[in-house]
Design brief:
By secondary structure, the protein is an alpha/beta fold. It has one domain (about 1-220): Rossmann fold, CATH 3.40.50.620. It has six helices and 13 strands. The strands form three sheets. It has a nine-stranded mixed sheet, with helices on both faces. A two-stranded antiparallel sheet has the order 2-5. A two-stranded antiparallel sheet has the order 3-4. Helix 2 crosses helix 5 and helix 3 (about 95-105) packs across helix 4. The chain is globular.
């Protein structure tokens, strides 16, 4: 089975976030990047588990610049067989999906896996766009994936329960928590990653549909007010005049 896993970089959650150029650009100074956790922990690890059970090959693909190669090597160290980097900034979901879909179409993958979203944008758009461009079935936010011959069985959480679906390969699946457990690369994997193939390809022509107008920080947390449990009148007054409905 040929599996394509889409990975992207994301700022480490301990990074200090700031903006430049009058809040129109993300300030990358001092930011440590990691593999987007949803891509790594769930999509990539489940792909490796499937390969270990059924055989095949796991290729990772990233749309990004040469700075992304550190996170690509991390994914290779976890166990992916080879990697592809589309040499372009990934600032637009459609552009990113189009590049990935173009590569997937040319190389006939059985299964395309993504994380459910990136932790910095939370857009959850790329998987759906890839499926649409490739004209393939899509299951979003999957929490379980099993292979049954030429079909896959998928579970996803829905309001009030779990939905089970079966679909024929090839297909696209975005992976959520529950799909797999995080793997830590060992020394053997880290050493092997240095020599695994990393192909760099040029992007294909494609429109960019999104532009960033400005960034802003969330409001700082306000001071917490403690109310005496016996003072219900004050509590009602504060809820009526100061509390915000979100």
């Amino acid at each position: 089975m040929k599996i394509l896993v889409c990975i992207s970089k994301a700022p480490d959650t301990t990074s200090k976030i700031g903006f430049t150029d009058n809040h129109t650009k993300f300030d990358e100074n001092g930011v440590q990047y990691i593999v987007n956790p949803y891509d790594e922990w769930y999509a990539l690890v489940r792909a490796l588990e499937i390969k270990e059970s059924n055989g095949g090959n796991v290729t990772i693909i990233n749309v990004g610049t040469v700075q992304d190669e550190a996170i690509i090597r991390k994914a290779l160290a976890i166990g992916a067989d080879d990697a592809v980097r589309v040499d372009s900034e990934a600032n637009d979901a459609y552009f990113t999906a189009f590049q990935i879909a173009n590569y997937a179409k040319e190389n006939a993958f059985d299964l395309v896996l993504t994380g459910k979203e990136t932790i910095q944008y939370n857009g959850s758009q790329v998987a759906g766009m890839i499926a649409e461009i490739l004209d393939l079935p899509l299951i979003s936010l999957a929490t379980k994936l099993d292979v049954n011959g030429n079909n896959i069985l998928i579970e996803q959480e829905v309001i009030g329960g779990v939905q089970v679906a079966e679909l024929a390969l090839p297909a696209v699946v975005s992976c959520a928590k529950g799909m797999a457990e995080q793997r830590i690369p060992n020394m053997r994997g880290i050493m092997a990653a240095r020599t695994k193939p990393l192909q760099v390809i040029s992007p294909v022509s494609c429109d960019t549909l999104t532009s960033f107008v400005s960034y802003s920080m969330p409001e700082a947390k306000k001071e917490c007010k403690l109310i005496d449990p016996n003072n219900l009148d004050e509590l009602v007054q504060l809820l009526h005049n100061e509390a915000k409905v979100i």
